[in-house]
Give the backbone structure.
Amino acid sequence: MSEKKNPEEAREAEPWRRTTLNWTEALFLLFLAGLAVLPPLGEIHKQLILVTIATVQWLEGRLAGRLQRHAHVYAVLLKILLATWLLGHTGEMGINSRYWPIYFVPVATAATYFGLWGTLFWTGLASAAYCSYLIPALQEYAITGAAVAELATRILFLFLAAMLVNRFAVESRRRATAYRLLAEQLTETNRRLAQVQEEARRSERLAALGQMTAGLAHEIRNPLGVIKGSAEMLSQKLQESNPLASELAGYILSEVNRLSALVARFLDFARPQALERTPADIREVVDRALAAVAAQHTEAKVTVERAYATALPQVPMDESLCVQVFQNLALNAYEAMEPDGGTLHVEITPSLRDGGRGAEVTFCDTGPGIPPDRRQQVFDPFFTTKKNGVGLGLAIVSKIVDEHRGSLRVEGEPGHGACFHVFLPVEAASEAGASAPSP
């Protein structure tokens, strides 16, 4: 979807659509008009050439927008040809025309658009065009030393003016580039700041929900234990005398086990975890997670594609927790592609984040994707789009990745699948075994 541009950006992007004159163009046309009222007044070719030069100057910026790469070359070449033509109609001998300074126009244009060597080339071409009038002059006159000195002086002034203009043009471009790079850095800094603020808000929400969840899970677990024990005793005692009651007690027992598993997940989310990090091959950890999910979904029509880089660093991690991270991501991908199936593309590459070296694992599925307004919510606790989901899987994934000082992000458009990127940093040896508990 294209973004709407403001009028100023539109004018910069499509300069050939401008019809108004800026003040520099207006002054240029005014000075050309001054030349038009100077002798020779009756020379119609002179007037036409001046009008053509004015037209080229007016169209120059607009041609740059349409012709792109070659517009500057065309502009300078046209001005050299017009300047040479003008000298042929403003003096008995073109080499002696008082209008010879018209060559400053193409020379200044070239100095503005090109670098040092380009400026020297176009200035030399303009000088050669001017000196071409020596050919007919030498057929009728003998050139004197004073004439040679005069001609050399004029040509040297052309080069001096070209170098001076080029110096300021190069400096202006250098500053413009520096300002553009600074603007890009500020934009990137603002983006990272917004990301950090969002992660901080999410961490605060996770901490509050974790404390609440831990308290509730603890209070629920005790009566569940009593209910489970009572159901087991009823099932054993009534197994022969009252089969129906025994069957109902079995239902109670199975539901209690399901609730106990759910409470265990709540506690896993809420409990601060002491990481036992050791350097490990992240490819083996990912393969273990993929194998576990494939064993759970033997009938799933999912094709797993692997693209693992060879030169991967050893990543300090808690292997059991990282297996849980990748297993949850793979499980989400499998469930997103049900019932028709699809392709799960898993890629592992070395990566850099904020100047730190690490490895990035990407899970891309071919499911329905995630709407843009839900991409950050998917990591919030209890947010789920599944009918029987709890909404803790990705929240636990985010928590574990944060505890590894990594990063987690999601991409993708609705209808084109989703991609989850997990970055795990490589830390110094002194930090590899340190734990990073999170509230």
About this structure: The chain has three domains: 7-143, 194-270, 278-432. The longest helix spans residues 145-237. The radius of gyration is 38 Å. The beta strands are 278-280, 302-308, 315-317, 342-353, 356-364, 407-411, 419-425.
